[in-house]
Write a structure and sequence with these properties.
CATH architecture of the largest domain: 3-Layer(aba) Sandwich
Number of domains: 2
Strand content: 15-25%
Strand order of the largest sheet: 1-2-6-5-3-4
Structural class: alpha/beta
Oligomer: single chain
Radius of gyration: 19 Å
Length: 247
C-alpha cells in the first residue's frame, strides 16, 4: 500500500460482506484496536460513542469493534440502535473523541460497514483513515500477538437509552410549529429509525401511524418508498406520507 492509497476506507467508511474480510470477527477487532491507538495519540483518555443499524450482523460487529477499542484503554459508550446522524450529533454534543456507526446504508442485509466520525461530528480525515489502515495491515501480520482483554465490555445492545433519548430530544427542540393537527404516515423501512421515530413524533405532538417498523435483521433493504403499494394505499386515508431512510 502506498502512502497515498487507502484500500479499506471508502467514501462511507469500511464496507463489505459481513463475515468476510475486512468484516470478520478478527479484522473488526483489529479495526477497533487500530482506531483506539490513533485516538490515544491525541488524548490520554479518549471516549467513543458507537451506534448501529438493524442488520443481523451489526451487533456482533459493534461488539468486536468495542472490544478492540477497550483493549487500548478507550472508554466506549453504546447508543444501541440509532441513525447515523444521531451518532454524529452525540460525538459532537457530548465531546466524544470519535463516533462509530455500524451500518451499510441501503446495501443488502448481508453487507455491513464501519463509519467513523471525528469528535466534531464530521467524517474522519483522510490522514487518520490512512494511519488506521496502515496499523490494521500491520496488526494482521501477527494477529495472535494482540490478545483480547480478559474482561469484555457490556454488549452493544440494547445500549444506553439516555444517549438515543438525548438525540431525540434535540431533534424535537428544533421544531417550533404546532403540529398537533398533523396526521402523518411514517415508513421506517425496518431500519434504525424504528428506534427513534415513535418517540420523536410523539414528542412533537404529531398523530403518526408507522409502517415497516418491525426489523428482523434481514428486511431493512426492503424499505419502501412513497410509490410502494402499502404506503400508497394508506395514503388514500388522507394522511401525509413521510418515508424514512432504510436501515
Amino acid at each position: 500500500m502506498t502512502s497515498q492509497t487507502r484500500q479499506l476506507f471508502g467514501t462511507d467508511g469500511i464496507r463489505g460482506v459481513a463475515g468476510e474480510f475486512p468484516l470478520t470477527p478478527e479484522s473488526t477487532y483489529l479495526i477497533g484496536r487500530a482506531l483506539g491507538h490513533d485516538l490515544m495519540r491525541s488524548s490520554p483518555k479518549p471516549r467513543v460513542v458507537i451506534g448501529q443499524d438493524t442488520r443481523e450482523s451489526s451487533s456482533w460487529i459493534a461488539d468486536r469493534v468495542m472490544i478492540g477499542l477497550v483493549s487500548c484503554g478507550v472508554e466506549v459508550h453504546s447508543a444501541g440502535t440509532i441513525t447515523t446522524p444521531g451518532v454524529a450529533y452525540l460525538a459532537r454534543s457530548r465531546k466524544y473523541a470519535a463516533g462509530v456507526v455500524i451500518s451499510a446504508s441501503h446495501n443488502p442485509w448481508t453487507d455491513n460497514g464501519i463509519k467513523v466520525f471525528s469528535g466534531d461530528g464530521y467524517k474522519l480525515p483522510d490522514s487518520h483513515e490512512l494511519a488506521i489502515e496502515q496499523e490494521i495491515f500491520a496488526l494482521l501480520q501477527n494477529p495472535r500477538a494482540h490478545s483480547e482483554p480478559s474482561t469484555a465490555p457490556a454488549p452493544s445492545l440494547p445500549g444506553e437509552a439516555g444517549l438515543r433519548r438525548a438525540y431525540i430530544e434535540w431533534l424535537a427542540t428544533n421544531v417550533s410549529a404546532d403540529l398537533s393537527r398533523l396526521r402523518v404516515l411514517v415508513d421506517c423501512a425496518h431500519g434504525a429509525a424504528t428506534a427513534e421515530a415513535p418517540e420523536l413524533f410523539r414528542d412533537c405532538g404529531v398523530q403518526a401511524t408507522f409502517l415497516s417498523a418491525s426489523p428482523d435483521g434481514k428486511n431493512g433493504e426492503k424499505g419502501s418508498s412513497i410509490s410502494a403499494s402499502p404506503l400508497t394505499e394508506m395514503r388514500t386515508e388522507r394522511c401525509s406520507a413521510m418515508p424514512m431512510a432504510g436501515w
